[in-house]
Amino acid sequence: xxxxxxxxxxxxxxxxxxxxxxxxxxxxxxxxxxxxxxxxxxxxxxxxxxxxxxxxxxxxxxxxxxxxxxxxxxxxxxxxxxxxxxxxxxxxxxxxxxxxxxxxxxxxxxxxxxxxxxxxxxxxxxxxxxxxxxxxxxxxxxxxxxxxxxxxxxxxxxxxxxxxxxxxxxxxxxxxxxxxxxxxxxxxxxxxxxxxxxxxxxxxxxxxxxxxxxxxxxxxxxxxxxxxxxxxxxxxxxxxxxxxxxxxxxxxxxxxxxxxxxxxxxxxxxxxxxxxxxxxxxxxxxxxxxxxxxxxxxxxxxxxxxxxxxxxxxxxxxxxxxxxxxxxxxxxxxxxxxxxxxxxxxxxxxxxxxxxxxxxxxxxxxxxxxxxxxxxxxxxxxxxxxxxxxxxxxxxxxxxxxxxxxxxxxxxxxxxxxxxxxxxxxxxxxxxxxxxxxxxxxxxxxxxxxxxxxxxxxxxxxxxxxxxxxxxxxxxxxxxxx
Length: 482
Known about the structure:
There is one protein chain. By secondary structure, this protein is α+β, with helices and mostly antiparallel strands. The protein has three domains: 3-294, no CATH class; 302-415, no CATH class; 423-481, Arc Repressor Mutant, subunit A (Orthogonal Bundle), CATH 1.10.10. It contains 16 helices and 17 strands. The chain has helices spanning 56-68, 168-184, 225-244, 272-275, 290-298, 304-314, 319-325, 329-342, 345-362, 374-385, 391-404, 408-415, 423-436, 438-445, 451-462, 469-481; strands at 7-17, 72-73, 76-77, 80-83, 93-96, 103-104, 107-112, 116-129, 133-136, 145-148, 155-161, 197-206, 217-222, 252-257, 262-268, 278-279, 286-287. The strands form four sheets. Strands 1, 2, 6, 7, 8, 11, 12, 13, 14 and 15 form a ten-stranded mixed sheet that branches. Strands 5-4-16 form a three-stranded antiparallel sheet, with no helix packed on it. Strand 14 (252-257) and strand 15 (262-268) form a beta hairpin. The longest helix is centred in the middle third of the chain and has 20 residues, at 225-244.
């Protein structure tokens, strides 16, 4: 028996830092990479007598998420105290929401190979404050643990999915789709490397076809797509081994060891009763004006799912190409601006999906981190279409445009990269190549048409890559067949 004999039932709890200037209940700034314990005050240090004051901007961003995923934004919600002890939790409790969350329901669309686009329903989205961070052996004295409370009080939302995911790939697709929504709406950078988006995986196994749910475990604090996928695979194997041996799964909190690729027990899982939730007496209930919620809704941008469908319909792009182009709002906007300047969506998409994507992969991965402008890319593609520069030379110019900006036509003139279109020059080069390679010419005439590529390469070498490949092919084929 193996994990393949079992069906996984997966639900995710995603913790997302909201993109605010200050913390959820105080004015301490939200910054990353600062010296430990330098972004703190009496409120987030939980000093006696300090009282929380709710950050309106954080509420607005949380509402924006709820509306973007089609959830029901509750006009009335309540902040509660979630009681548990952990060294990086200064108050001994976390201010969160429980019985009355800010958002109920909603869903995130994912693309699946068998079912197409499928909506993964959400249970709830609630607001809470983040805890601090434990640092083990990284400071002056190895072997000791220290508490960095800069993160304590940073505003979070917890986005809880229904247990409707069935594989590691689906979980990864859910997280990628959710991250795109968060970035499109501007509520979070959702950078997993910075801890701005973290995931807990709830997983149980059952026999295929069974309607009875198994006992679940929760694997905590996963901070990359790869670790989420790895943790799911590892926990599936672990639970399958226990069940196949006749054992029982114990409800527990697990950790994933990326080095060994295995999950391990952290603690026996708490239930909601263990947290002793009750309304925070220092905070009044959160009552939102429906007119204000409607105003927030009006400010939402076009969301990734709608943009993907529009790109497929308006620009006649395949689903995969459209999905790649809308993965970031900046990239999608850049594509549309380039199309407006150039006029041919398919040509622009080809350059962006191949050449621009290759440059982004080498660098920061963000079109905004380059100096490439939509008008410059459109002009460069136009010069290629007109035969004034070869694709090979244009790619060299594209790299320079991304690094330094500028006018592609001027760069081509300055670098001497204008395409050789003089038929006399190309005819002469072709004649010389054929004279130097009589055996290749005979093989072509004997039916080995692939040798034409070699002969073309020789002509391109003689013209320093400045000749139009299509024109060179035409001239060589005419001479060889004549």
